[in-house]
Amino acid sequence: MRRPSPSYRAVVFSTLLALGLSACSFEPKLRVPSSPGDHTSYTASGNPQKTVGAQGLAGSAQKFAYGKDLDEEWWKLFHSPQINRLVQTGLKNSPSVAQAQAQLRQAQAEERVNASIFYPQVSGSLESTRAKASAAAFGGGKGGFHYSLVTGSLNVSYYPDIFGVNRLVYKNSEALVDYQRWELEAARLTLTGNIVTTAIDAAATRAQIAATQEIVLREEKLLRLTQLQYQAGAIGYNTVVTQASQLASEQAKLPPLQQQLTVYDHELATLLGQFPGAASIPELQLKQIVLPEKIPVSLPSTLLKQRPDIQAALAQMKAANATIGEAKAQFFPTVQLSAAIGSTAAHPGLFFNPVSSIWSLVGTLSQPIFEGGKLRAQESEAKAAYEVTYQEYRSTVLGAFGQVANALRALQRDAEALRAQQAALDAARKSLQLSEVSYRSGAIDYLTLLNSEVQYSAAKIAVVQAESQRYQDTAALLVALGGGWWNHPGKDGPKLADAHDAHAASSSSQ
């Protein structure tokens, strides 16, 4: 019986070694920060349950439904067709969303590239040679002889998954795909938040312009009144000049407001992926927006799953954890198995003749011996990189909870501020009306009337700003909660997971 050749035994040994160690993995258990429980309060003094109510636009009392999820796209809670159209246009045309989509496709392609390492790599080659050999090399005379050579082969190479390195590389790319999915979701959430808040800013500015124009009309009326009184000899000319100055002061407020409105419209056009000169921006009014009266607020533990930025940070941790395993595996041998079969012949007619067949079977075992501390430094680098993602995850979680807490308290204070501003406006309106009557009858001087005018003007603008702030902070809370994308019908979003789910999965795979 013929004994196996040494090279054959080496290949067999390498194969058995690869199979025996393929279940090993140097990936450490995923270390994650502690998570809040369901009964954790967002704010230090307990979560607010509802806000106070006020009169007029945006005066409804708001209630917070804790433990309830947003069950639709969050901007629809404002019941504004104009906002809905703006958001849909932005999601369709925005370059930031298109960029995030392209980055996701890039990551998915990279994942498929890394998945190919699990399979044998097969290639074929065909070479035809026509050459002249020197006769002198064989002791012949002048000249030489010509010959042809046709060679074809099929080559197979395979890298067994020693120490789970291949799995770690693929796991890294999987995590990066998840990261880009969450980054896409974050881009959508950021875009919709910016569109809604900018549209509300524009509507509030229009309301301030309308209020200022109303005040200007009132001041013009008072100016005509003072001019008539001056002509009748009832007052001095100084009063006319003072009223004209007050009118000019109010008129001077309009150009900056109109400029600010232009800026908001241009910002909206950019968010919609359109040129400012060609965009069609609807003239949204505050009265066309409905303030949500019942706001679902996710539990703290659920917030970790629903915030795209938190999920993206978790995916980065997974990728960095797999990289640590890759760095550790570099200290150990790698095995490559390769085989080739083919044929070589001096004439094409002999190419398929059995005597022309060639083959090879090669097993390669490579072990690092000395690399000047490079491998140890790479492992330290991977561990430090994981620590970076760990702290980034912590910062992202803390920032998210801070945003929710701030928005909850802001809505509570906004309602109180609006109630107070409405009361101040009512008082200022009554005071101005009484002052105008008294001024006409000569019961008060002009300075008293002017003071009432200034108070009314300031109170009118303050109410508009307070109404706008309630809309703004409501939108900020809905965005801070993650936006409700996960419950939108037909939405093919990324898989929800939290850090403890990832920790358990990592532990079970060791």
Describe this structure in words.
The chain has 510 residues and is α+β, with helices and mostly antiparallel strands. It has one domain: Outer membrane efflux proteins (OEP) (Up-down Bundle). It is 57% helix and 12% strand. Strands 2-3-5-6 form a 4-stranded antiparallel β-sheet. It has a two-stranded parallel ribbon with strand order 1-4. Helix 4 packs antiparallel against helix 5. The longest helix has 68 residues.
| Strands, count | 6
Number of helices: 11
Strand coverage percent: 5-15%
H and E order: HEHHEEHHHEHHEEHHH
* Percent range of helical residues: 55-70%
pLDDT < 50 stretches: 1-8, 18-23, 503-510
Structurally, the number of domains stands at 1
The strand line-up of the biggest sheet is: 2-3-5-6
First CA to last CA: what distance?
45 Å
Name of the CATH architecture: Up-down Bundle
Q: Which of globular, elongated, flat, extended, rod-shaped describes the shape?
A: elongated
C-alpha-based Rg, rounded: 38 Å
Q: What is the fourth-level CATH superfamily? A: Outer membrane efflux proteins (OEP)
> What's the pLDDT, averaged over the residues?
85
Assign the structural class, choosing from mainly alpha, mainly beta, alpha/beta, alpha+beta, or little secondary structure: alpha+beta
Q: The CATH topology, please?
A: Outer membrane efflux proteins (OEP)
Keywords:
single chain, 510 residues, alpha+beta, Outer membrane efflux proteins (OEP), four-stranded antiparallel beta sheet, two-stranded parallel ribbon, 6 strands, 57% helix, elongated, disordered N terminus, disordered C terminus
